[in-house]
Specification:
This protein is α/β, with parallel strands linked by helices and 355 residues long. The chain has three domains: 69 residues, 2-Layer Sandwich (Alpha-Beta Plaits); 81 residues, GMP Synthetase, Chain A, domain 3 (2-Layer Sandwich), CATH 3.30.300; 173 residues, Vaccinia Virus protein VP39 (Rossmann fold). The protein contains ten helices and 17 strands. The strands form four sheets. The protein has a seven-stranded mixed beta sheet, with helices on both faces. Strands 2-3-1-4 form a four-stranded antiparallel beta sheet, with helices on one face. Helix 5 crosses helix 6 and helix 8 packs parallel to helix 9. The radius of gyration is 29 Å and the shape is elongated.
Length: 355
């Protein structure tokens, strides 16, 4: 309890009195307002001056200045809108980003066009409201190129792009400027890893720094993952991550193109193939079919779809590609939208058992 000066008023005058003390900059936000019987005790930051008293007399028909014991106000973390309400024009508060991606100690945000001239202010506010964050990056355009990289602008903080991200008990070293990584796929990583059975061989065709491969290896005792990626930096971090998570004997990082690697080294070895390259996965369905054992197996296929019925479109395209590759779908195990990648565009996952 904290002893502080207070304004005591009948509870019927409570709202009016609180508004007044805030207007006079007397209201103590650190302490809780107390209601005892029919009286409301409003904590003050200091004794009211004579000028304050005159203003209170003009506004309230009944009051008393006294001292009271107050419990401390429970502090909640400040919200982005709270920090920015005095720093942005009111009409721009509605334009604040709907979501922020947190990768380790880095916050990644897409700055709306309306806030372009206030982007540094936005960055500082994000830094202030997320104490574990030390860098705020703004996305500059879409993911591009064979390595799926994105350019960033530093809005606030240390300005680094390398970090350590933790997800489902796994640790990932990565550099956002050099490799692709999305924290929005955390649930998908866990969903797929939970379907893998003991004794399986998995081919992760576009492994990146290993969020599918390493989680699978951590969850299962007897299995092997061949983790392929054509980005040398991704493979470098993948090797580091297999060591950090103590799964070196279960995950085999392979630098190279998935088609060539499967044709040369992994043909017919997989019980399960993961195809998380939604921009181009349709072009690699034949390679996934080649990786799956002759007796059959499971493929986790991803694509971007913006049709009126994205799941049906993805399933249809995938089925057609499987048949073109000379194999058949025994059963479509599930079809689901993973996330909205852009307005009216969704990342869709199709899980299917292949004969």
């Amino acid at each position: 309890m904290f002893r502080a000066p207070c304004l005591k008023v009948p509870k019927v005058l409570g709202e009016e009195a609180i508004v007044l003390t805030r207007k006079l900059a007397l209201f103590n936000r650190e302490l809780k307002v107390q209601l005892l019987g029919d009286a409301l005790y409003i904590p003050l930051v200091s004794e009211p001056t004579s000028a304050h008293i005159k203003e209170i007399e003009r506004s309230l028909p009944e009051f008393e200045i006294s001292v009271h014991d107050f419990p401390e106000q429970m502090r909640r973390p400040p919200r982005l809108i709270d920090v920015l309400e005095d720093r942005l024009p009111p009409h721009l508060l509605a334009c604040l980003p709907r979501s922020i991606d947190f990768v380790g100690e880095i916050a990644v945000v897409e700055v709306p066009p309306e806030l372009e001239s206030y982007k540094k202010v936005l960055g500082e506010a994000i830094l202030a409201t997320h104490k574990r964050t030390n860098t705020v990056l703004a996305k500059l355009g879409a993911v591009k190129g064979d390595f799926r990289l994105r350019e960033f602008e530093v809005l606030a903080g240390e300005g680094k792009t390398e970090t350590i991200h933790k997800e489902h008990g796994c640790t990932y070293y990565l550099d956002l400027a050099k490799v692709y990584f999305s924290p929005r796929l955390a649930n998908e990583h866990n969903r797929v890893a939970s379907q893998v059975k003991e004794g399986e061989t998995v081919v992760d065709m576009f492994a990146g720094v290993g969020p599918f491969s390493i989680l699978i290896a951590k969850k299962h005792v007897n299995m092997r993952v061949y983790a392929i990626d054509m980005n040398p930096d991704a493979i470098s971090y993948l090797k580091r991550n297999t060591e950090a998570n103590k799964v070196q004997g279960k995950v085999t990082p392979i630098l190279g193109d998935a088609k060539e690697t499967i044709r040369d080294k992994l043909k017919g070895k997989a019980d399960r193939a993961i195809m998380n390259l939604p921009e181009k996965a349709i072009e690699y369905v034949d390679a996934a079919c080649e990786a799956i054992k002759p007796k059959g197996g499971t493929i986790h296929y991803y694509e971007f779809s913006n049709s009126p019925n994205p799941m049906e479109t993805a399933k249809s395209r995938f089925t057609e590609a499987i048949e073109k590759a000379g194999r058949n779908i025994k059963e479509v195990l599930s079809t689901r939208t993973v996330r909205e990648a852009a307005p009216f565009t969704w990342q869709v996952a199709v899980d299917a058992e292949i004969q």
